[in-house]
Amino acid sequence: MRQPGEITQVKNGMMQITFCRPEACAACNACEGGKKEHAIWVRGEGRVGEIAIVDMPDRMVAKASFIAYGIPLITLLIGMIAGNLVTGGGDAGTAAGAAAGLAAGLLILKITEKSRAGREEWSPRVVDVLEKNETGEA
User: Fold this and answer.
1) Which end of the chain has fewer CB atoms within 10 angstroms, the N or the C?
2) CA pair distance 55, 17, nearest whole angstrom
3) pLDDT band at 98 (very low <50, low <70, confident <90, very high)
4) What secondary structure, in 3-state letters, does 12-32 show?
5) Which CA distances in Å does 59 have to 11, 63, 64, 112, 129?
6) How much is the average pLDDT of 38-49?
7) pLDDT: is 120 or 67 the higher one?
8) 3-class DSSP state of 97
9) pTM of structure
10) First CA to last CA distance, the chain
11) pLDDT of residue 63
């Protein structure tokens, strides 16, 4: 997945790249609470105002999506089933089990995020830097 963004800061071999939300995402608002812009820091060379093309391999985007959405969903379902079995089918027990399962899934994400954060394959990379013309386009 390649996405263009504007370089907004440069410090010590790192660039802050600001992305505008794609049109396809206009109705969703799931990312960053529906903000129209999102910035990340990526290793690379460029100047403020230039356009950086950032790449994240599609398979890594798919893995990240599964981890972010799949793990909490799976643990929620496991918790729901366990709560149901423990309480003999009571709604309150099922709901409590689901909440505990979801909390466990989110905790798993938090703990394992540290190991993924430092690994090269999980990091977006800059594949090209383009100058902006007078109209503001690359």
Assistant:
1) N
2) 12
3) very high
4) CCEEEEEEECCHHHCCCCCHH
5) 30, 6, 9, 19, 23
6) 85
7) 67
8) helix
9) 0.61
10) 18
11) 87
Helix, strand, coil percentages, rounded to 5, for the chain: 50, 25, 25
Q: Token pair for residue 82? A: 């366990």
Tokens of residue 100, six digits: 């505990």
Cα-to-chain-centroid distance, residue 14 = 19
Side-chain half-sphere exposure of 118, counting CA atoms within 13 A: 3
**Listed residue (64, 45, 42, 62) closest to 54, CA to CA:** 42
Show the tokens assigned to 41: 């820091």
Instruction: List residues bridging with 11 in a β-sheet.
Output: 14
Percent above pLDDT 90 for the chain: 30
Nearest-angstrom CA–CA distance, 59 and 74: 21
